[in-house]
Amino acid sequence: MSAVPIDSVLPELARLLGDAGRAVLVAQPGAGKTTRVPLALLDSPWLDGKKIVMLEPRRLAARSAARYMAAGLGEEVGRTVGYRMKQDTRVGPATRIEVITEGVLTRMLQSDPALEQVGLIIFDEFHERSLHADLGLALCLQACELFRDDLRLLVMSATLDAAAVADILGGAPVVESPGRVYPVETHYLPRKPEGRMEDMAARAVLRALAEQAGDVLVFLPGMKEIRRVASLLAGQATVPDVQVLQLHGSMPQDAQDRAIQASVPGTRKVVLATSIAETSLTIEGTKVVIDSGWMRVPRFSPQTGMSRLDTVRVSAASADQRRGRAGRLGPGVCYRLWTQQEQAYLEPHGTPEIEEADLAPLALELAVWGTADPSELRWLDEPPAGAYRQARELLELFGALDGQGAITPHGARMAEIGLHPRLAQMSLRSVPLGLAATACDLAALLNERDLFRQSFTGSSAADLRLRLEALGRADAGAHSVDAAALKRVRLEAENGRRALGATGKRTDSEACGLLLALAFPDRIAQGRGDGRFLLSNGRGAVFSESQTLSGAAYLVAAELDDAGTDSRIMLAAPVDAAQLEAALPGLIEEEALVEWDSTAQTVRARHRRRLGAIVLSDKPQQRPDPDRLAAALLGAVESEGTGMLPWTNTARKLQQRVVFMHRFDSGWPDWSDEALVATLDEWLKPHLYGMRSRNDVQKLNVASVLEAALSWERRRRLDDQAPTHIVVPSGTRVPVDYADPAAPALAVRLQELFGMTETPKIAGGRVPITMHLLSPAQRPVQVTRDLSSFWKDAYFEVKKDLKGRYPKHYWPDDPLTAAPTHRAKPRV
DNA sequence: CTCTCCCT
């Protein structure tokens, strides 16, 4: 092996790891760290003959690193150097370096938390900050603390914020290595970019082809943009011998391979790629990179339990990584479709996956680890609380966690299966239904890349049953199926069947919907009849392209893009409601609802069967509970207020008199409107039995209902202390007005009061009545609470005035002895 | 008017 830049720092790295037990190695791509570091550390005395485990974020990278190192030792993979990943492991008894994919570490730790055979764990490409790497590091740090203070950790990264990692490693030393990348000349757009990204990209391609030699790699956010740029370029008379190729993850393997291969000598290629070409795939011969500056990222929403794709600006780190793809073979050129000013505002790093991902897998692993609260572990970024809570709720719904949040035996089995908890749930629960074989097929289908090529469109493109059927067909390699994907799905399905003891069983594609309901109980959808659906999680959903399934009464959506009001359904299968109920009775909630229907202004008693937000059936109850009917009607009065009752004058007056009494004696009940609403249960409820509607309530006699709430003794005292009328000297029974409970009033013509020396008092003599003295024509003349001083003073002023206006009336000089009258003059 | 990438 020829010398690489990393070699200069290896002795120091070995020494630091020996002393401190932890280290961070920052090295640019091309420094050779992945293949050089494990071999160089293998004979370190502190390793004590134990193994080195190195994590790679991708299977391809893990295999090729192992192969490269084995070749350097002149050995086969599986001797000193091996690799380990799901469905593919090459490790022998002599293996001392195991290159593993990130998820494997979690499984290793869960089965042997002390990792007895391992002396050093290396996290490669840690700057990618995958969920698995973050989790793996957190678990390792605790394993070190609890069981293995001699387990050494090395974190390797290209563009990392080394200080933060060094910090959670407990102040680990940082070693930096020079890189070996060729210079890449960077061109920014001169001013504020105008027009569509696709137009700019196409123009940049033409410019690059004219100005530069070699192949061109263009980074675009997604398939849509790639196709648009491709068609723009196709419309141009491009330079001869230039081939335009597309590259994204959902393309079949053979098409991806064609894009990656070096161009035929004498020709040039332009590869239009997603971020797949940033780290995962290397395109041979790239001399020029054109970067749109945008990427698509998934964002999980804990509110809906679904993900959405967002188009966002790349981080400065990503942009540098993309640019570096032009400098692998020699000096290169990079065109950035943004300005130098905008460059200053790019985020330094992308968002770590843990911040925006579905945390159900992580929550399950932590529960198996025995950790309920993630803050018990050390994280670079702690799992967000909302997503973590949603994840735990899902696991509890599945029976993976018990009431205390601890892992159940079922949850432990789910984790062992090594699938997303939803798919693990489907696999395990399918066994008693006799559907394990189909469940394994389905889990494999959903876990792997889509079996069907992108070109497979039409009215059944979103139907999962077709994929299940294709999986079982001998000649499935036909037109629309991606052969490489089919092979992987079949392998995974077969392994699943073996694990569940369902080998050789037939696939039942009609059970598809039912099985999906096990995994996605929150995504069962009820057709609304117009092609739109209501999901059991309460959201709307629709197929982006009209499908045969658009008319289904019920279906289960396995894949959705959570966009706006109606999520887009990508993959689904129909389900029969009766079958669903029979097989999964636990999903259905039965409700006896007694509710006020404010439109019809009546209480409705219904028997409803619900599946989340979906109403399966809704019928009137045969014999509703009278107590609940009365309570519901009472609730309506409570929310609408006492104004809903048919108040009469008599009732209001009775209310006012009691309010007046309560003011002076708190032993009396409070009958203010608010207090009446608050105590409806006591005084109104007994009268509501047998009633259901507003109309029924209108038949109530509020006065007698209120009166019934008073004891006989209180009624007697009310008449005595808050009389309805007072008889004045003229003999007229004048009603007392209690509208103002602080000042009950009597409005009466002055002449009827001749001879009344004192203001009448009520409430057992405590409250003088406010006298509204009126003219013969019932006009207000004077208000007083002290009649005797009125007669002495003010009367004489008033009399003069009244005499002028009502000369025919009787205005005596001595009102205290004069005869009262309700006519002009007293009868003689 | 259509979905980024990866893994147990």
Automatic annotation (TrEMBL):
First-tier enzyme category under EC: hydrolase
UniProt GO molecular function: hydrolase activity; RNA helicase activity
Entry's EC annotation: 3.6.4.13
Keywords: ATP-binding, Helicase, Hydrolase, Nucleotide-binding
Pfam family, one: HrpB_C
Residues of the Helicase C-terminal domain: 201-370
Residue stretches making up the Helicase ATP-binding domain: 14-178
Signal peptide start-end: none
Top-level taxon of the source organism: Bacteria
Full protein name: ATP-dependent helicase HrpB
Provenance organism: Paenibacillus hodogayensis
